[in-house]
Write a structure and sequence with these properties.
- The protein is α+β, with helices and mostly antiparallel strands.
- The protein has one domain: Peptide Deformylase.
- About 25% of the residues lie in helices and about 30% in strands.
- The longest helix has 16 residues.
- It is globular and about 45 Å long.
- It starts with about 25 loop residues before the first helix and ends with a helix.
- Bound molecules: zinc ion.
- Zinc ion binds next to helix 2.
- The site of zinc ion has 5 residues, from helix 2.
Length: about 170
């Protein structure tokens, strides 16, 4: 197990557009995926993108489970997305609180509107392409992690700073 320190906003890796990964996945890409899963779990996150461990490659992982800031709305197993593309987003959007491992030391959360449903295509570790229609929390996570690959964070997606909430206040609401 290799838990990597989560790179915080202000570090250029968080603002850099990530590059595609050659497939099938090399040993080093497999190691990045393992490190992402370990780090996501160790940091209580439900998704993590490679730039957050300082690697600007187009890879992210997700896993829905209960964390200290997110009660589980069902569970979803670990999923690996390599070179993901969002093909379609629903017109219907939902506003909800979002946080980020790369904003975690600042302890800030804020309301972000995200599409309820997205269609995402990506490659797995086996190099096979898959297309997935995701909704609800998983759709929100996929959009958040895809943003990381473009050098964006949730703060950029907020309608304004009015909903910025500290960790302590967020925990009171959950
Ligand atoms: Zn994030």
């Amino acid at each position: 197990m290799a838990t990597k320190r989560t790179v915080q906003i202000g570090n250029p890796a968080i603002r850099t557009k990530s590059v595609p990964v050659p497939l099938p996945a090399s040993a080093s890409v497999k190691k990045i995926v393992r490190d992402l899963v370990d780090s996501m779990r160790a940091n209580g996150l439900v998704g993590m993108a490679a730039p957050q461990i300082g690697i600007n490659k187009r890879i992210f992982v997700t896993e829905i489970r209960t964390t200290d800031t997110r009660r589980s709305d069902g569970r979803d197993p670990v999923r690996v997305f390599i070179n993901p593309k969002i093909l379609e987003v629903s017109a219907r959007k939902t506003a909800d609180y979002e946080g980020c491992g790369s904003v975690a030391y600042a302890g800030l959360f804020g309301i972000v509107r995200r599409a309820n449903t997205v269609m995402v295509a990506a490659y797995g570790l086996d190099g096979k392409r898959f297309v997935l229609r995701v909704e609800g929390l998983l759709a929100r996570i996929v959009q958040h992690e895809q943003d990381h690959l473009e050098g964006k964070v949730f703060l950029d997606r907020m309608a304004g700073m009015g909903s910025i909430t500290g960790r302590e206040e967020l925990l009171k609401r959950k």
